[in-house]
Structure formats: structure tokens, C-alpha cells
Amino acid sequence: MSRAALLLLLLPLTLTACDDAAKDDEGGADTAGADGADGADGADGADGVDGADGADGGPPDADGDGTPDADDCAPDDPAISPTAAEDCGGEVDEDCDGAVDCDDTDCAAEPACAMPTLTELFPTWNVYLAPTDITLIGSGFSAPGLRVEVGGADCPVTAVSDTEAVCTLPPGSTWGRYDVIVGNARGERTTLADAFTHLAPMYAADGRAGTAGNLYAIDPRSGAVETVAALEVGFTGLAFDPNGKLFGVQSTEYGDEALGSSGLYTVDPIGGAVSRIGDLVEDLGDGSVTNHDSIPDITFIGSQLYGWTEDSDQMVLIDTATGAVTDPGSDYLSSYGSGLASAADGTLIALPSAYSPAYLLDPATGLSTEASPALTIPEGLEWESGGAAVFANGDLYKLSGSTDSEGLSSTGALYTLDLTTGTFSATPVSTLPFYVDALAAPLP
Known about the structure:
By secondary structure, the protein is mainly beta. The protein is 6% helix and 36% strand. It has helices spanning 3-25, 32-35, and strands spanning 117-122, 125-127, 132-139, 147-150, 153-154, 157-160, 164-169, 176-183, 189-199, 202-206, 214-219, 224-230, 237-240, 246-250, 263-267, 274-279, 281-283, 289-291, 297-301, 304-309, 314-318, 325-326, 339-342, 348-351, 359-361, 368-370, 389-392, 395-403, 409-418, 423-424, 430-432, 436-440.
């Protein structure tokens, strides 16, 4: 066959092959179209190989927050993802780190998430029979779930800011000194140790015959008497100031001077520890002094401490910083060991420990007016072993002493006294231990 004839035979085959190759290059339906079934139009089949979104070839992100569904703790919520900021009060784990709100370290600087601190509180005491509003000062109080405890008792919070909170402490069941604890919902707690004191409604102490006996707590509702602690000093007078601080006077005329010279003391109403302030000494203004060693009772009106002295049978003023005694020019009264009591309205009353009348005293001058009607002493009631008196919850209480067949002081008793009638209660509120002479009640 000639060369020319051979070329004519091969020409159709060559044209067919070239035509097929051109179709491949153009991405026709024969090849690439089949592979790109997921593509939108078959023309861009290569883009649709991976998938579900078909947008840029990345992994699925159903909520469009930029975090793949596989890495998103809330794939259907665009506000929650590992790249979101934690809302420290939203009660939701917005940033997917497993910690919610203040438990998240991202919230450590938020005031509402700070660990609570407690620096001070007021008041620092109450009489345990009554509810009390306590104001607490510190920080971190606006954290969720703020809780306050006083001696293990819940003190429900009634008002709060980040630096100040108020809680209402319900009545307690006994006297004592207690920790105050502030905590939050995360279980973080701060403690102010021995910061709050429950005082008993009334206290008494031994004093006469040189007795360094005990401090007693009295519940006048039931008449119950408890021993608080042993005392190093025998006291003839006790009194609380407006801040709940207990003072006592020791008068050596009534007993053994081995217990020390007469003086003014502070007394811990919970533990019984005593601290001497100074001697009960009066400067007479002429270079001489007199020691008042026979002060049977004391009482406060406001911050001023008053005493009754049997050295001259008159009212005196006592400096609580030094124990110094001042005579304001008081009347001289034959009271035979008077009790001294002050009412909430500032009335000052001198009450006898024998058969003398009661007197109303002017706190500024000590001038006296005999109370009317006269006191009616219950038959058989003796007063020689004690004369202390005190107002508590509006009632006037008076200590008495009874004697045995040999005329010796044996027991004491606590009575109420109605000044409008001059009569004592028919039966004692409490029976008290031997030689109890001092009586005090926290001021309202």
C-alpha cells in the first residue's frame, strides 16, 4: 500500500482521540460530574467533595460561631463556645471550660466573685433572750449565696452590698462567746474568732466576808442560776456599761484585806477573768486622799459610773479609767448598805439593805427624795448580807439575805420590787449561793 493511502486510513482515529481529550479537560458530565455529586452544579464538583456546608471546605459548624461542632460544648448556641467570654453572673458555662460563673478563674477579678472577708461587726454582744440585728463590715458580700453564722446558728441576711451586710440573729439559748463566719455558695468561708458575745440577762457575784467566790448567770424568767467561773476577787458591786463591759468593785471593809485593797475592776462575763483598774480613792483637794473601802453597789447611767459609799453614806462618781472617786455634794443618808439601781429613763434609786426607806437621787448632785410609798419588807426577810439592786427588762430586782437560827448569813434570794406600791414579790425569783452580794444586768 502506498504511503498516502495509509495516512488516509489513520486520520479518523486521530480526530476521535483528540475530541475525547478535550472533553476531559472541560470537566464534562462523563467523568468529573459523577465524582462531584455533592456539588451545587457539577461545574465546581471539586469544592463539594468535603461537604455539608460546601462553603469553604471546613468542618461542620451548625451555629456559625466559628467553632467546629466537634469542639463546641453547645453546637446549636452561637453564644456558647470556647472563644466566648464567661458571663460571671449568667449561671451558664459560656466558655466551655467546665466552670460556671465565679468558679471560673476568668471571674477571679470580679467583685461579686471575691472570697468574702470580715473585718468588724457591730454590735459585738447582746442579751441572748432577744433577737439582734448585726451589721458586718468587709468585702465580697455580694457573691451568690452569702451566709452568716454566729456560734453555729444561722443569722439570716436581710440587707447586703459588697462591703456591708446586715443579718438578724435569733434569740439564743445560753451565754457564751462565739465565732462569726461569713461564707458563699462556693463554700469559701472567713471567720472572726470570738467576735460576738451572748450575755446572760443578769449576773451576780460573791463579795462579803472576804469571799472570792464565783460569778453567776441568772435567768430571771425561770430563776435558774449557773456558775460562770471562779473569781480571784470578792465583789460587792457589779455594773454593765452601755458597751456590754462589766465592772466590779471590791470593798475590803466587808472581809479579809488579804484579798487586796478596795478597787475598781473589769470582769470578763464569760470567763471570769478580772483586771484591776485602780484604787477607789478620793482626792480631798487639800493634799490628802481618802480610800473608799466600803462601796456596796454601783450602777451606770450612760457612760458615768455611780457608786454608793458607806464611808459617808452618800452617792459618788467613779472614773472608769482610774477608779478615782468624786463627791458631787450628795446628801448623807443612813442607808445601812444601800443597793443602787438606775432605770432606763435615768432614774437613780438607792435601796436599803436594812429597814431604811428607798430614795430617789439626782444623778447630777446626789440630792435625795424619799420614795413614796414606803417599802414594805416581807415578814421574816432580812437584808444584812446583801443590798444590791438592778433594773432588767423594766423590772426592779433586789438581793436579800436570810439568816439561820444563830443569826449567821446562810442564803441569798432575788426578789422583784414594785416601787409604785412599795411591795416585794411574795416569793423569790431565785435562791442564790452563800454570800452573793453583787448584781448586774446588761443595759438594754
